[in-house]
Amino acid sequence: MQAEPEGTSQAVIATDGLTKHYGNVEALNDLTLDVRAGEIFGFLGPNGAGKSTMIRTLLGFLHPTRGSARVLGLDVVADSVEIRRRTGYLPGGIALYDSLSGADALEYLADLQDRGAPLREELCERLQLSKAVLRRKVRDYSRGMRQKIGVIQALQHDPELAILDEPTEGLDPLMQHAFYALMDDQRAKGRTTFFSSHVLSEVERICDRVAIIRSGHLMALQNVDELLARRKKKVELRWRGVAPDLAGIPGLADIEVVGDRMRATLQGDVSGFVRAIASPSLEDLTIEPARLEEAFLEYYAGDDASEEERG
Amino acid sequence: MSLLPNAWHIARREYRQRTASRTFVIVTAFLAVVGIGIALLPVLGRLITGDETTTVAVHSTDVQLASTTATTMNQLLNADGKARYEISAADDPAAADADVRAGRIDGLLTVTRAADGELSFEALTDASGTDQRLFAVRQAVIQVNIGDRLRRAGVEPSEAGHIFAETPWQVTPLDPNSHSLEDNFGANYILAYALVILTFMAVITYGQWVATSVAEEKSSRVMELLVTAATPRQLLAGKVIGNGAAGLTQYVVVVAAALVGLLAQGAVAQYLLGDKAGAPLEDVNLLVLAPFGVFFVGGFALYSLLYAGLGSLASRTEDVQQATGPMLFIGMGGYFASFIALSTPEAAWVKVVSLIPFFSPYMLPMRMLISSVAPWEWAVAAGLMVVFLAAALWTAARIYSAGVLLYGQRASLRSVWRAVRVDR
After folding, report:
1. Among A61, A100, A112, whose Cβ lies nearest the Cβ of B6?
2. Maximum CA extent, chain B
3. Whether pTM exceeds 0.80
4. What are the tens digits of pLDDT across the range B336-346?
5. Is A80 within 8 Å of B226 when comparing Cβ atoms?
């Protein structure tokens, strides 16, 4: 595990050897991490990695089999009611009462949270939920509209901590960017956000730090900048004529030439690579973001092999 | 955190959703009509069959015997002055026989005097063994026969009247408060019977509503959002109050409709049939229903709380029946115990069981109506009810807060036990 230096700011979420087993299924295994006040923390992993289990444990819906966790300085087992009261939560695959209108659903949840909804109007505007849409019943909503309501209800009462389970699921690219902008504002206001995702690019875009989880194990806990630097991208090039020798370019590896095509992986800075391939005979260039699963493998290629055996 | 105001918000939403649904409105209206219909059934029955006179022909080879028998029976059977029976002597037994078979008259009574002077009677009719009219005719025949024996034994007819006079008879009840010997016992008995059935139906039906509503939220996963905004205790209390109030609304509408029907029976009978039948609730003091109301609401809340807790163990609405099975079992237990207790309201076991909160909503009002309940028994039962309600809220909240997140798991005894042990 990467040893993180203790930050000066107090930990908003701190887990210590957190473990959750369902019978024989080990959903979480010995997870130790901390989320600092005011940061946006990405919790990254493929489906079934244990992301939702982690979130449910943090909110006190599930009890750890071993280990402990504190949220806002409160114990997740003993003080879960107080934790939930002070947290905004977006569950994964959100469901709402079909018979309520969007506006009524938001009002109802705000009533229950009993904190008012100072940010509701602004959030609705930024996520482009018009008054007309809000008046319609939730049963007529698309997946994306429901998700917007979910994001708004989690943030409308301006909680000090927001825990969001895959918040951009179902949002179109434009709305995803509106959401990223919301996250930037949260950071600027000093609010803490913990959010899970299986999309590496969005974690890169908005998070300060990221934890990567796989089969319940913490694979990495990193600053996003560091992760970016180590990530390998797939590149594919097509040439007219004979391919030039690119072996000397820094960061380029696993070169494979088939006819007029060349495939390789690229790590780190792309500018050197782009300069080196600049040539009139270059016909096509694709740089494909590394898929999450591969990012894990890359990251841990040199690590203890026993970790990798867990599929 | 305190229950209010969140429990109130939740209850209000539940109540609105439930009562605004078309199903609720239609079913309530339908049941109200059925309630009135059942209440007016006796009047409607008379309207359809008409105010019948029962006609019986009496035949004997001894013409004199036939006519005196007919006269005596007419007097005995029409003693109430309503002239419901028409007994006449028939000369031609074959014609009378044909009349009975054709349905023109209700019966043919053949009287035969044997050689030793004893009378024997033979009735030809299609009336069933439980027919009240056949029973009345038989009672009259017995009196005719005894009168005949007295006459043959030489007793003067003037003395015979004295012999048949009413016998003074009085019972002093051990318990002076008991209703079991009062004149309106019959009406009270029927009311007790009705209360047991209505309580059972309400507790089971509306408990099921609560359980289904919980399971629906869980299967649609709205629950996860709610349980973040409100505490399990608030959610549970809100659900029970909201759904319970909706159930009570329907219940009160239906029972009120039936009561109006019962109270209007006399007026309706007068309007439709031109005579005044006594309203069946005339003899019952409706004030006795006040303690019933208190215990009904208490029992209703008790069952609903546990239904909500158990309902939360079902992952799909189809599993609700199975998960809430124990409640049906307890409810049925109280139901059957009440029916056995109706005939032995003074038995020691009835007194003990009627204080237990799961059964007191059935059995206390029943005992109150047909026997008596001491003030200390009311106090003990009410105290136990409060204790059980608190325990049920605590237990149900634990099962609920664990159950709402146990996705896809079968409700087993073990999972319930684990859920109750774990504090959330």
Report:
1. A112
2. 96
3. no
4. 888 888 888 88
5. no
